[in-house]
Amino acid sequence: MASSTSSPCFSRRTAIWKQLALRSDVDDIILEILGRFSLEKLYLAGGETTRYQSVITNLLVQLDAIFYIQRLTIPSRQQQPGPFLSFLVSWEVAARTVELVLQTIAEGRDNLWEATALRNEYLAEFLLGALRVLHLHPRSPPLQRPKDRRARFARIHRLLEQIFDAYPGEKSFLLIMCKEITARLHEEAHSLCLPTTMQHGTPNLITELYPLAPCLLPPHILQLVPPGSPSTGWVSQFLALRDISQYIIGASLQYAANSETRDAHLRQASLESRNAIFAALQNLQLPSQFSKVDVVASFNCWFRLVFSDTPDLANLNLEEQNTSECIVDALDELSERLAQRQAIHRVSDREMAFNISRITRSIQIQDDPDAAYVGSQSPSQYVLNCSSSHTIGGAQLRAGGLSTTIGSFPLHEVKLPEMATCSACDEDISVARELPLARKVWELLNPLQINADSVSAERHMSNSFQIGSPDTEPHDLFTYSTFTSGLGGNVPLTLDSELMPAHTQSIARDTAPSIMGQSSNNSLGPSYSMSKKENSLLAHIRPWMTANPPRQRDASPEINPSSSHSQQGRESVTEFPYFSIETASSGRPSMADQSSISSRTPPRPQVAAEKGRTLWKMPLPGVLLHKRTLPTVSGETSSITSNHVDENPMEEIPLSGLFDSGLKTSAKTKAVANLHVALSQNSSYGLLWSPSMIHIWDLGTTPPNQVRTIPTESSCILAAIGRRYVAYVMGSRDQKLTLRIMDLSQTMPTVTEYRIPSELWCKSIAIDRQENYVVIGFENALVRFFKTTTSEQPREDHLHSMLHTCKSCASVDTLAFSQDGLSLLASTRNAKGVVQIYLWRFPFDSFEELASCRYPVPMHESEDNGISAVMMRSQQGAEEGLICVTTWTQSGTPVLIQQNGGIKTEMRVPGGAHGKLGSRIKCAAFSATGRELAMVNDKGHLYLASSLNARPIDIRRKATSRELTSKNCALALSFMTVASEEIAIMMWVDPSRGRAFMRRTPVGMRSSNSILETNGPVYVSAASSQRGVHTSKGTPRKQLKLSG
Q1: First-to-final CA distance of the chain
Q2: Which of 157, 315, 593, 695 could disulfide-link 182, Cβ–Cβ 3.0 to 4.6 Å?
Q3: 588 pLDDT above the threshold of 70
Q4: Of 317, 329, 316, 330, which is closest to residue 116 (Cα–Cα)?
């Protein structure tokens, strides 16, 4: 009704109406807003006038929106107030809110002196609404006598007088009205009552406000202020007309909030009532100091919410500024806070959230068991006219070419083709009739689904305040100590390189709570062997204890030979047919340990960038690192706006020790071609590895520093590294895999080993940012989660478990965690070339396919190397998730996909022969801030895309590496933060030169307010994964066969 003619603020107020009307926690909402304001005000330093005014403006606008709805909730006198009390703010909270606001503005004279609009408009509107609620509230505090009530209004009046004294000059009509109202109320608390007809006939939010009640129609309005009425009652008449205008606006808001379609003649009735109010205002007898233009203007701004054709009298004053933008921003902030509050309330009832998820998921599975149809229609169920009345999903009917809708309305009966038979009983069928209950249940429950643990994690990790502490650096706002002190003891520790202990402590390990729990998809059974070898001196550091940072580096730590684990036998190891998990921590160095500590030389002087090295970082002797400048290719034009590429010089990384140095040239080139690289997502570490050896480099120093060498003892297939752990998978000729997870924080590293006797080969690996577990993708759409801190049976997630038992399904080509650590994406590519994306949200105990984000790429191409990268940008505030998909194909253009709507934006760069981005992308990475996206194409060019929400996206070539002949070439890309500066790092191996190189590309300074900081704490949920949505063991059968 009002949408076509309403103001920009109307949609915001409608959204807040939906969130605030008839809520039983109004007191808590107001107290939360005031508490947040008080915390904001802590760090408002002198001179920050603009920020101070912005914070108080938001507070006043939000409180005004709340008290406006409260005014419409107050029942009439003919109704018992009992049923309404739960929806009303308490009198005491309302009174203290008014007092706090007035006191704050009176004391903030230095910062609010020039904020005329704040006092004359925002403060006045809030006070009028709040004072009206206090005056008409049906339930006063217990034991409050009339003189006590007058005393409270007297206190408010004195505070308002202080504001008048503190801010001399011209005041608005509404602010003077507030002072007039408080003056009368502190003399007689019931002196401004409603007219008799309104006392008994006004509606409230329990019922519908439309059609308009008789007391809101023109005949009654004109009777309120008859011509020649005495001037003694002008304040009561003004307030009564203001109440009527608010009810009229409220009726339009409620109409829009309810998404009404019936014609209630609301617009015409509202226009007539508006005109009657303006006519009554002409009869209002005002004191000489007031102007009727100001009185009409105060009503005018309210009616412009619904009727944009109402003249804007505020424009008559040239000094008035357009403040609608401030109101919109404040209302948007309030709406977002209310949405978060509703989500938290909803997920607080874990049983309810779990049951809702199970119901909606089961309806979706019955609608489309094979996930073969992607559409925007709601899941539905149809009954076939066979003798057993078998059911079929609406998606299955649509997949067979049948329509289940007429326009936008569902079709309750679908005629089937001739010769159609039921697949369950093979009987002939001719019609399918809908069961509307399934569709309606899904439509009602689906919007209520929420990921409880994601909401909880984001609430602890985001900076929801506008003003930070002046005593804290921006990147230190969310440190480890901040969270561990507030979250209690059971918080696994992700150690920073600066927090490594000078010596380890022998501490008995407790059983840490697990976020993996049991899995309904775990086919491995409960049998697995676990053997722990503990060193009394070099035992595991208890993962939830704070490590004391070392004062200085201990160049030669003492190791007690008597603590060797050789005294312990292996008699306790029991063989089981499934996983074998072995945790090794020996006082006597193994071969891997000997190679990493055998050569020790006095450390060379450190540079500033080496500040964060750990105790075990030792420069290797004889290693000379040289900076070389890669020749640039002439004629390259990769940038949209510039052809010049300003890049930093390359830095060489030697490969000695990764292969036999005595090989001939051809054999050496082949050995170098078999090397691989990997970069950490949450630290400055990088990996270079061959099938038999792994080298760990610290790329945050200049030059890069090799910190550890690890013999693999078998053929290394995959490897990944975080800040504390390195994980690598070894394969044998009999198709058996072994995963080893090494704790790098120990002087003598602790290794957790998982033996995986599986016929499925591994394809991808990732370590989460908190390093709680390692995730590996296998063939047949299988993903396994391996714990790093505790030895327990890994969890399995079969991506197609709800559809069928995989025998020849696609492999999990990529696994990637978002930079904020709250999302995990896996991707597969089916036989038709469609890229399918699966999402886990923290704590990753359940997953879902993002059906709207499917990306078809043809399979008939000659150079098809499949998916190269699928990753999600860190979620920023209210922005929806943004997913990047790249491939190494001829037609799979890199795309950005919006998570919710599935809208795809192709990323192309026009240019010369060497300037195009192309479709063969080796790797991609989002920056920690989420503002940049880096990609490396087959030419070895690094492209940096910024302004990802703009159209077109700004894409520029920033650096070069080497030309890549296939997707398997050794090159890795990642964003790292070094000395508070965010840089993109490329690391690659050049077989023709027999060397490895790296190149740094600065992006900008890291800002902690741009994303959710997750480097310090690790969150553990004690809830079992049994509550996940993937609990179905059976798969619904297709019930329809269309033949002929």
Answers
A1: 50
A2: 157
A3: no
A4: 317
Q: Which two tokens stand for residue 785?
A: 């989660």
Cis peptide leading into residue 557 (ω within 30°) = no
Question: Six-digit token pair at 889?
Answer: 């194909």
On whether the CB atoms of residues 996 and 652 are closer than 8 A, the answer is yes
Model pLDDT for residues 171-229, shown as the tens digit of each residue: 999 999 999 999 999 999 888 999 988 998 899 988 889 899 999 999 999 999 998 88
> Look-up: residue for tokens 């401004």?
192
CA distance 741 to 768: 13
Tokens of 404: 């289940």
**DSSP-derived pairing of the beta strands 971-978 and 855-856:** unpaired
Write out pLDDT tens, residues 245-288.
999 999 999 999 988 777 668 989 999 999 999 999 999 999 98
CA-CA distance, 1023 to 249, in Å (whole number)? 46
Dihedral through CA 144, CA 149, CA 155, CA 160, nearest 10?
140
Q: Which of 1039, 1031, 842, 1034 is nearest to 359 (CA)?
A: 1031
Tokens for 666?
């051809």
DSSP class of residue 118 equals I
How does strand 715-721 pair with strand 725-731? antiparallel
Q: What share of the chain is helix, strand, coil (3-state, %, to 5)?
A: 30, 20, 50
The answer to whether the CB of 888 falls within 8 A of the CB of 921 is yes
Q: Which residue has the higher pLDDT, 313 or 627?
A: 313
CA distance 516 to 658: 36
CB–CB of 253/17 below 8 Å? Answer: yes
* Residue 206 to residue 75: CA distance in whole angstroms: 9
The answer to whether the predicted template modeling score (pTM) of the entire model surpasses 0.70 is no
CA angle 1037, 1041, 1044 (to 5 degrees): 170
CA–CA separation, 497 vs 894, rounded Å? 36
Contact (Cβ atoms closer than 8 angstroms) between residue 506 and residue 536: yes
User: What's the CA gap between 364 and 380, in Å, rounded?
Assistant: 8
809, 826 Cβ separation under 8 angstroms: no
* Beta strands in 473-528, from DSSP E residues, in sequence order: none
Q: Report residue 791: phi and psi, to 5°.
A: -90, 110
657-692: per-residue pLDDT in tens?
787 666 677 777 778 888 899 999 888 899 998 888
- Identify the burial level of 662 via C-beta atoms within 10 angstroms of its C-beta, where 0-12 means exposed, 13-18 middle and 19 or more buried: exposed
How far CA 206 is from CA of 16, 23, 79, 132, 175, in Å, comes to 17, 11, 11, 19, 31
Query: How would you class 505 by CB atoms within 10 Å of its CB: exposed for 0-12, middle for 13-18, buried for 19 or more?
Result: middle
- Residues with Cβ < 8 Å from 68, sequence gap 6 or more? 129, 246, 250
| pLDDT on residue 213 | 93
Q: How far apart are CA 425 and CA 35, in angstroms?
A: 65
Distance CA 161, CA 827 (A): 66
- Which residue in 821, 845, 772 sits closest to 457, CA to CA? 821
What 3-state DSSP class applies to 726? strand
Whether the pLDDT of residue 656 is over 50: the answer is: yes
Residue type present at position 65: A
- 3-state SS, residue 1003: strand
